[in-house]
Design goal:
Blueprint: H1 6-37, H2 39-47, E1 50-55, E2 58-63, E3 77-80, H3 81-89, H4 97-102, E4 106-109, E5 111-113, E6 116-126, E7 132-136, E8 141-146, E9 154-155, E10 160-165, H5 167-181, H6 186-198, H7 203-212, E11 219-222, E12 227-231, E13 239-240, E14 245-250, E15 255-262, E16 275-278, E17 289-299, E18 304-311, E19 323-331, E20 335-339, E21 344-345, E22 350-355, E23 361-372, E24 375-380, E25 387-391, H8 393-403, H9 405-420
Antiparallel strand pairs: 1-2, 1-3, 4-25, 5-20, 6-15, 6-19, 7-14, 8-10, 8-13, 9-12, 10-11, 12-14, 15-18, 16-19, 17-18, 20-24, 21-22, 22-23, 22-25, 23-24
Helix pairs in contact: 5-6
Length: 421
């Protein structure tokens, strides 16, 4: 057993007191060192009021104290109250250059040039309505014979279609021959022949009547043009009225090729050289465009115009109903151009972020003219040579929203419009 003597007790008490003094000294030393290290940070917070902390990658989420971002492996950034005052005094915002570099913020100059438009549109081949013939008897009668033809058959000009008996024509022929044999005047006989022409009797049969002086009771209606029969529904023995259609024939050379194009690009189509036709059925074949036109009406649902091309088809390789592709390759007049990725469009307005001479990022509202091939043409809002942010817009745009730069821009626009009025 160990017994505490007065001497041992004194030594133990002295050791405890000395340990406490050393611990207090070490603790005081490190506390002082820590306080010294935090002086700049505390001094900065003391001199500048912090509104909140945020992650630049997720600027709309705010925190009430510093620390690590829950989204990214980075420290939260303070938003100072006097930062807003500085922003109000100067246009735009300023962002730490290291931050913009790390996030890949890039700029490109506004340039003047031609907007190139290249696009392919689906199209279809159809008959050319400039070449259509409608055959009618123009007098009542009945059908004696129908030649072996039907819809879709090709016919040559002069090919027989049907043979008819027309009582009105037979009666007029008798009257003509009677006047001619009984000394009728030339005016009277020519009047009867003209009446036969108006009633629809073919010129060939009228000439035969004059030379043969014999009444004809059967008449042949023939194809007036080369083409394809698109309507033909008659049978031998049928009665036919004067307004019945015997046949419809449509030509095959040239044909129409039609495509729906956006109304917004109509101004860019100025010449047939901008247009090219390709057909899946004939991938290696080219086709000559004889004429083109934009039809005057716009489809109210799709906001498109019909572009119609008159295309040569001498070998009839283009068949009505075929699919085709219309390729448009056009250039505009010189205008202000920016990369399309530099444009911010929220539906209500379009804007870009520019960089001024002081290195500040300034949002500007712009009016867009058209976009093509990753390039956007601008009507107004910026000038040639200005630099616009083309990469890292999400950072700049979110910073601009936090700093209130966009609100001030909109307020300035509203004020300017009020002065103009």
């Amino acid at each position: 057993m160990t017994f505490f003597t007065p001497k041992n007790t004194a030594l133990l008490v002295s050791g405890v007191i000395l340990g406490g003094i050393l611990s207090a000294g070490v603790s005081s030393y490190f506390s002082a060192a820590h306080s010294t290290a935090d002086v700049p940070h505390d001094a900065e917070h003391a001199s500048r009021k912090v509104l909140f902390w945020y992650d630049p990658m997720y600027p709309n989420t705010r925190f009430d104290k510093p620390g690590k971002s829950p989204f990214m492996d980075m420290d939260l950034v303070p938003k100072y109250a006097d930062g807003d005052a500085d922003a109000a005094a100067a246009p735009g915002i300023r962002i730490d250059p290291t931050q913009t570099q790390n996030l890949g913020v890039k700029t490109e100059p506004v340039r003047r040039g031609s907007l190139e438009y290249r696009q392919t549109y689906p199209a279809n081949v159809s008959y050319n309505d400039y070449q259509i013939a409608i055959i009618q008897a123009r007098s009542a009668g009945f059908i004696e014979k129908v030649y072996p033809l039907t819809v879709g058959d090709k016919v040559q000009k002069g090919a027989p279609l049907v043979e008819l008996t027309i009582p009105e024509w037979v009666e007029a022929q008798s009257e003509y021959l009677l006047l001619r044999d009984t000394g009728g005047t030339g005016t009277q006989t020519e009047g009867i022949l003209e009446r036969l022409r108006l009633a629809g009797m073919p010129d060939e049969d009228i000439r035969r009547l004059k030379t043969s002086r014999k009444i004809q009771t059967r008449f042949t209606l023939k194809a007036p043009i080369d083409g394809v029969i698109t309507a033909f529904d008659l049978r031998a023995g049928m009665n036919i009225a004067k307004d019945n259609i015997v046949a419809k024939i449509q030509g095959m050379d040239p044909v129409w090729i039609s495509a729906a194009v956006p109304e917004s690009i109509a101004w860019m189509i100025t010449d047939a050289s901008q247009l090219a036709i390709s057909v899946p059925a004939w991938p290696d074949k080219s086709f000559a465009i004889r004429k083109w036109s934009l039809l005057p009406s716009v489809d109210a649902t799709t906001r498109t115009l019909q572009l119609r091309l008159l295309v040569d088809n001498p070998d009839e390789s283009l068949k009505p109903g075929m699919n085709a592709w219309l390729k448009l390759n056009s250039k505009s007049q010189p205008m202000l151009l920016i990369p399309s990725k530099a444009l911010i469009d929220n539906g209500d307005e379009q804007r870009v972020i520019t960089v001024n001479a002081d290195g500040r990022f300034v949002p500007k509202r712009v009016q867009v003219f058209h976009e093509s091939q990753g390039v956007t043409a601008i009507r107004s809002g910026i000038a040639e040579g200005e630099k616009v942010v083309s990469s890292g817009l999400f950072l700049i745009d979110s910073e601009a929203n936090i700093a209130g730069a966009l609100d001030r821009m909109r307020a300035a626009d509203t004020s300017a419009q009020g002065h103009e009025q």
